[in-house]
Amino acid sequence: MRKFIIMGIQGSGKGTQAKLLADDLDLEHFSVGDTFRWNVQHHTKLGAQVKRIMASGWLVDDALVEAVVRERLADHDWNFGFVIDGFPRTARQAEFFLESYDIDGVINLDLPDEEVTRRVLSRRLCQECGMDYNLIAHRPSREGVCDICQGNLVARADDNPTALAARMKDYHEETKPLIAIFERKECVATIDATRSVEEVQARIRERFGLPPLKSA
Length: 216
Ligand SMILES: [Zn+2]
Known about the structure:
Blueprint: E1 2-8, H1 14-25, E2 28-31, H2 32-41, H3 45-55, H4 62-73, E3 81-85, H5 91-101, E4 105-110, H6 113-120, E5 123-126, E6 132-134, E7 153-154, H7 161-184, E8 188-192, H8 197-207
Parallel strand pairs: 1-3, 1-4, 2-3, 4-8
Antiparallel strand pairs: 5-6, 5-7
């Protein structure tokens, strides 16, 4: 059984790396954020609860996150293990989680703030069809125009330097104590996320003695 926690700021490629790792090794990729979004979209009881909290301008609290994770992991559909993303969020959750689930390792995708800024501020979104573009890695063939539907490409409202700086600060403040706990338990692998997707994946696997990614 292989059990991993993956951490990384937005723009670090966390979702991509978790998926690559999970697909090939038959692990469950369990993203807390995706679970909340799914529940909101499908109008579940949990979704209603999350919506209520967010409508009142609060953040989803740690207790609710913890309940969702417990419930999800109690499903036992992860025969070969899991990669969890978005949990733990507090020092207390981290201690508890490491003990109760016998975690193999924590993958910490490390990306300097300048690179986060460069990547995030180059994101564009089609106003019509919602297609994502990136002016570094996935440029539209005509500037400002969607390749698929000719819609207008815009930056997300919260992808501006001020909002991003605040998010980066929050991220560092929240994750520092967690990383310290993981380092004490000697299970954290900090990986340089400025490298290509393939290189980052290869390094993760090297660090934990996993078989190399099967090329598609
Ligand atoms: Zn479009």
